[in-house]
Structure formats: structure tokens, C-alpha cells
């Protein structure tokens, strides 16, 4: 094959798109019920935006960005995530303030230059939400409930919700200091990445999945043990609200998430059918991001669902089947004259709201009916010279195989 898609960019083929459409519809329905409004940002943004928002020492910014210099000598990046871009759009167009709630959702492709493997691609898709304007843990709870509701509506009820609080600017430094102190003696035994994290972003050490770092991390101090009063009260309220809402969750003291902007609540929804890449949704609060990007102090919370991983889960559960869309009516013209009439009839049928198609190849009747069957058609309209001269068509019920000769208008009525 001369041309192949780029490594890690798999595309979504028609056999899979029906599942994607079901997911999108399920999300749309719930977004509407929860009063979220759609925003669509460009896929390309200034590189600085992500470096500033996501953080220069994160995996995303230090290793994974698709960045290049455009013809106007601007440093630009294909968005690796949407939150920074949504905040940028909100500030540019004055969509948020601290005394009103702004609730936005998005769908779209994201780009990260990662090593491609199961559940990890270089172009992947996320659906996500961002809620601006409230610091109330009730809003954190609403976002988690919304994610859980989407999964439940898709027939998935056994996903695990992991929750943690990573504190705020007031209590995080104290925690970091303690963690640094704890790691001081053992950091030499940890991996390369942890060395870097230790220097620049110590909390992220807790996120390391390497076996040789694991047992050191196990004994490390946890953010929740260092929360200031405000963070602790908010965290407890959140857990209380979630319990009352009947959401099954687990406090996971090691959950720190890979982006710098999180404050207080972080959460992840994981599935046990996914293997190593088991997180299907990641979210949390980011109360400082809006002001970090030059806006007012507006607290915010949101999540992003990884759609490729969600599709993988849905395929294993068989809760939904990915059947291609079927048509209602198939035209089987026999001969060139019949073909011309069939084109007109086909157009009329579609105008009447019937999904329809026809044979353009001049195939034998048997082959045409086989094709009608393959397309899932409920009816076939057979058009031969005899029928043309009598101004009639033959309507074949594809399920019972019974046939009747009638006028085209009568056939349409019957089908409808
Ligand atoms: P991971 O730990 O799996 O790398 P992450 O913390 O980088 O995840 P987020 O930035 O929080 O992920 O993105 C939210 C969700 O997007 C993830 O939970 C996952 O489902 C999905 N996701 C992230 N990166 C990829 C990727 N390269 N390919 C496919 N899906 C991805
Ligand atoms: Mg990642």
C-alpha cells in the first residue's frame, strides 16, 4: 500500500461509527438535561497556551505535543486536551465570571505524540465538560454524577470512580515539602522520570507506575493528610454528597493526575476490561487556571472521557451492538429504460422520507435482491419492461418474499 495513515492515527471506519453515534447521542441527551452548552474550539492553538496551562514539566508538554512553526513564524500546537483551549475561548469572548455558572461541553479530536498501544493513540477523541463559576463541592459532585449517568445509560454500571483531593496553593507546598523529605533517601532507587518529577513536580512521583518505584510510593505521605481546613471540609462534603446520590466511589490517595492545573478534587473513572490503559474518564477542579491564563479568579471543574477507550469497553460488554444503518427500500431495475424510471422513483421515495437506494450496475434480478438483503432493506421495488408499459411496479416484501404488482404511489403508501 503506497499511502497509510500516520502511526497512532487510526481513523474510525463505518463498522464502528454506529457505536460512536450512540455515545454521542447519549452524551448530548445528558448534557441537555444537565444544562450544558456546546463549545467548539479550533484544533490549533498557540503553543504557549498549553505550556502555561498544562505545565512545562508535565508529560504532555515535555514529550507529547504536536508542535510546529507555521508560515507566519508562530509556534503552534495541535491541542493535546481541550480545557486550556476552552478557558482561552471563555476569556477571549467574555463567557465567564465568578458570580454566574457557565456550563460547557465539547467533542473532538486531541493529539499527543505518545507511543501507540492499545488504548493509546496519537489522535484520539474526547468528550468533556467544563463548569465555571462555583467553588462548591456540589458542582464537583454534579460533574461526577453526569459522567456516571452517561456510562449507566450506555449500559455500563460496574465502572469504578476513584477520588482524591490534591489540595490548593495554601496546603500543597506543605505536602510537597513533606513528600520531598520522605523521598530524599530513596529517590536514588527510583526511575529516571521520578528523578525529574522529584526536582520539578514532586507530587507527580505518586503517579509512577514502574514496579521499582511502587513500593517506595506505597509508604509515601498522602495529599489528603495535609489538606488545609477549607480543602478538607470541601473534600468531606463532596464524599457526603456522592454517598447520598448513591454513587459508588473509592478514595484513592495516590490519584494525582498528569496535568498541573488541578486543585482540590481529582477523579478518574476506570474499567477493569481495559488492561493497562484503564482510565476512561479523568477530571477534577482547577480553581487557579482561569487566573493563571490572565482572567479573573473563577473557580472551575470538569472532566474528559476518552472515546476510543469507551468504545473498547462497549465492544466487550455487548450491551450495544454496532449494526450498520439499514435502508427501507431497494430499487431493482431490469434494463436501461427501467433504470431511468428507477432514478426518478428513488428521488420521490427519498423526498417522502424513506431511506432508499438502487442498483446502478444493471445486475441480474437475483444479484440485486441479494444486495437488497445485504443492505437490510425491508422492501424491494422491481421494475421491468412489462411493469413500465403498464405503469406499475412490483413490490417485494423482503422478509416474507411475497410480491404484488401495483402503482408506484400505492407502493409508497404501503411502505410508509
Ligand atoms: P493516561 O494516564 O491514560 O495517560 P491522562 O491522564 O493522560 O491518561 P487525560 O489527559 O486526563 O489522560 O485525558 C482523559 C482521558 O482521555 C483519559 O482517561 C483517557 O481515557 C483518554 N486518553 C488520554 N490520552 C489518550 C491517548 N493517547 N489515546 C487514547 N485515549 C487517551
Ligand atoms: Mg497520558
Structure report:
The chain folds into 2 domains: 17-171 and 227-317, 2-Layer Sandwich (BirA Bifunctional Protein, domain 2), CATH 3.30.930; 329-415, Rossmann fold (3-Layer(aba) Sandwich), CATH 3.40.50. The protein starts with 16 loop residues before the first helix and ends with a helix. The strands form 3 sheets. It has an 8-stranded mixed beta sheet with strand order 1-5-6-11-10-9-7-8. A 5-stranded mixed beta sheet has the order 13-12-14-15-16, with helices on both faces. Strands 2-4-3 form a 3-stranded antiparallel beta sheet. It is elongated. Strand 15 (393-397) and strand 16 (403-406) form a beta hairpin. It has helices at 17-33, 47-54, 59-64, 83-92, 137-153, 172-183, 192-200, 211-218, 229-244, 289-292, 307-317, 336-351, 365-374, 385-390, 408-415, and strands spanning 37-38, 44-46, 66-69, 75-78, 102-111, 123-132, 160-165, 249-251, 263-270, 279-285, 300-306, 329-333, 356-358, 379-383, 393-397, 403-406. Helix 1 (17-33) packs antiparallel against helix 5 (137-153). It contains 15 helices and 16 strands. With 416 residues, the chain is of the alpha+beta class.
Give keywords:
single chain, 416 residues, BirA Bifunctional Protein, domain 2, five-stranded mixed β-sheet, binds magnesium ion
Amino acid at each position: 500500500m503506497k499511502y497509510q495513515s500516520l502511526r497512532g492515527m487510526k481513523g474510525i471506519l463505518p463498522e464502528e461509527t454506529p457505536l460512536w453515534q450512540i455515545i454521542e447521542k447519549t452524551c448530548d441527551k445528558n448534557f441537555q438535561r444537565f444544562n450544558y452548552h456546546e463549545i467548539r474550539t479550533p484544533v490549533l492553538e498557540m503553543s504557549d497556551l498549553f505550556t502555561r496551562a498544562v505545565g512545562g514539566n508535565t508529560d504532555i508538554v515535555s514529550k507529547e505535543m504536536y508542535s510546529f512553526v507555521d508560515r507566519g513564524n508562530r509556534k503552534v500546537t495541535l491541542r493535546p486536551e481541550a480545557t486550556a483551549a476552552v478557558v482561552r475561548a471563555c476569556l477571549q469572548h467574555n463567557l465567564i465570571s465568578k458570580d454566574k455558572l457557565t456550563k460547557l461541553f465539547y467533542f473532538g479530536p486531541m493529539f499527543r505524540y505518545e507511543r501507540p498501544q492499545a488504548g493509546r493513540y496519537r489522535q484520539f477523541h474526547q468528550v468533556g465538560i467544563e463548569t465555571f463559576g462555583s467553588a462548591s463541592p456540589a458542582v464537583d459532585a454534579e460533574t461526577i454524577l453526569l459522567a456516571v449517568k452517561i456510562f449507566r445509560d450506555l449500559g455500563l454500571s460496574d465502572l469504578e470512580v476513584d477520588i482524591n483531593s490534591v489540595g490548593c496553593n495554601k496546603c500543597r507546598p506543605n505536602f510537597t515539602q513533606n513528600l520531598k523529605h520522605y523521598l530524599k533517601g530513596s529517590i536514588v532507587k527510583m526511575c529516571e522520570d521520578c528523578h525529574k518529577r522529584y526536582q520539578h513536580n514532586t507530587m507527580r512521583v505518586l503517579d509512577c507506575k514502574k514496579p521499582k518505584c511502587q513500593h517506595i510510593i506505597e509508604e509515601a505521605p498522602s495529599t489528603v493528610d495535609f489538606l488545609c481546613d477549607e480543602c478538607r471540609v470541601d473534600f468531606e462534603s463532596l464524599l457526603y454528597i456522592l454517598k447520598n446520590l448513591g454513587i459508588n466511589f473509592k478514595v484513592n490517595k495516590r490519584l494525582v493526575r498528569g496535568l498541573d492545573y488541578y486543585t482540590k478534587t481529582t477523579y478518574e473513572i476506570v474499567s477493569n476490561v481495559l488492561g493497562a490503559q484503564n482510565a476512561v474518564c479523568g477530571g477534577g477542579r482547577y480553581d487557579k487556571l482561569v487566573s493563571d491564563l490572565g482572567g479573573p479568579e473563577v473557580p472551575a471543574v470538569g472532566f474528559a472521557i476518552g472515546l476510543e477507550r469507551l468504545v473498547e469497553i462497549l465492544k466487550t460488554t455487548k450491551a450495544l451492538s454496532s449494526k450498520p444503518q439499514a435502508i427501507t427500500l431497494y430499487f431493482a431495475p431490469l434494463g436501461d429504460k427501467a433504470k431511468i424510471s428507477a432514478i426518478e422513483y428513488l428521488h420521490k421515495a427519498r423526498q417522502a422520507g424513506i431511506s432508499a437506494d438502487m442498483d446502478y450496475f444493471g445486475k441480474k434480478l437475483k444479484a440485486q435482491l441479494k444486495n437488497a438483503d445485504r443492505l437490510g432493506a425491508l422492501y424491494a421495488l422491481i421494475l421491468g419492461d412489462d411493469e413500465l408499459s403498464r405503469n406499475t411496479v412490483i413490490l417485494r416484501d423482503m422478509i416474507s418474499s411475497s410480491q404484488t404488482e401495483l402503482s408506484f404511489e400505492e407502493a409508497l403508501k404501503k411502505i410508509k
